[in-house]
UniProtKB/TrEMBL annotation:
<protein>
    <recommendedName>
        <fullName>ARB-07466-like C-terminal domain-containing protein</fullName>
    </recommendedName>
</protein>
<dbReference type="InterPro" id="IPR009045">
    <property type="entry name" value="Zn_M74/Hedgehog-like"/>
</dbReference>
<feature type="domain" description="ARB-07466-like C-terminal">
    <location>
        <begin position="122"/>
        <end position="235"/>
    </location>
</feature>
<feature type="signal peptide">
    <location>
        <begin position="1"/>
        <end position="19"/>
    </location>
</feature>
<dbReference type="Pfam" id="PF26571">
    <property type="entry name" value="VldE"/>
</dbReference>
<dbReference type="InterPro" id="IPR058593">
    <property type="entry name" value="ARB_07466-like_C"/>
</dbReference>
<keyword id="KW-0732">Signal</keyword>
Length: 243
């Protein structure tokens, strides 16, 4: 899997630019949402809230749809988060945002993932990364599907992956599948920053760095630029870098 490197500039001053239409957001009442134009949302029978897609154009808002035709509990959400069956063509946004038959979240349900091997070379996965991944999986059993540590790049490179000091915690059904699951994991990482020896954490096109940020809910983290995909905008995995 390739995830674009995070440069030092972006770590320190991640700024809000044009955001990512058709990607997740937190909708009305905390429901699953998608960033779409107000016209698209209205045509699909959804409702919009302001502020849910802060990096997007003014006519793009967070759209959610709490009721759709798939049993008594039908609601629109990302397919990776549906605990029941899904029906297409009833929800706004991309095809992965569908009508789910269950009111319960379908977060996780994965077997315990394999952990990267700790090595001694400059580019090998470090113990701090493996220990951090193990701590997250222990705190959130069933929520992490797969763990990536190293990348094919020379240390120090432009990413902590190059030196084995970062992990990508995949928390959706497949790479490229959007989920809302990572928010809880990312906020837990922030709250356990000292024991994890955290450098920074990224989830859902937002970044939190203990050296520059106050402890805040994810919706108040600093926005990052749109990198062009679900994976590169960190909507299918939590990135955690360690000191």
């Amino acid at each position: 899997m390739y995830i674009r490197s995070l440069g030092i500039f972006n770590i320190l001053v991640a700024t809000a630019v044009m955001g990512a239409v058709n990607e997740p957001c937190v909708g009305s009442g905390g429901s699953a949402g998608v960033c779409v134009t107000t016209a698209t949302c209205s045509a699909s029978g959804g409702v919009t809230i302001s502020g849910g897609c802060p990096s997007d154009a003014s006519d793009v808002k967070c759209c959610s749809k709490a009721s759709c035709s798939n049993g008594s509990a039908g609601n629109c959400r990302w397919t990776s988060d549906c605990a029941g069956t899904v029906v297409s063509n009833q929800c706004p946004g991309p095809s992965a945002f569908k009508c789910c038959s269950s009111a319960a979240t379908g977060f996780g349900g994965y077997p315990t993932p394999s952990y990267p091997t700790v090595g001694t070379s400059a580019g090998a996965c470090k113990q701090v990364s493996v220990s951090g991944a193990q701590a997250v999986v222990a705190a959130w059993p069933g929520r992490v599907r797969q763990i990536y540590c190293t990348r094919d790049c020379a240390c120090p490179g432009t990413s902590d992956h190059c030196c084995g000091k970062a992990v990508d915690l995949m928390c959706s059904d497949a790479g490229g599948d959007a989920t809302e699951s990572g928010r809880q994991i990312a906020e837990w990482v922030m709250n356990n920053r000292n024991s994890l020896n955290l450098k920074y954490v990224i989830w859902g096109q937002r970044i939190w760095n203990p050296s520059v940020d106050s402890v805040l809910t994810w919706t108040s983290w600093r926005s990052m630029e749109d990198r062009g995909s679900i994976t590169e905008n960190h909507w299918d995995h939590v990135h955690v870098s360690f000191n």
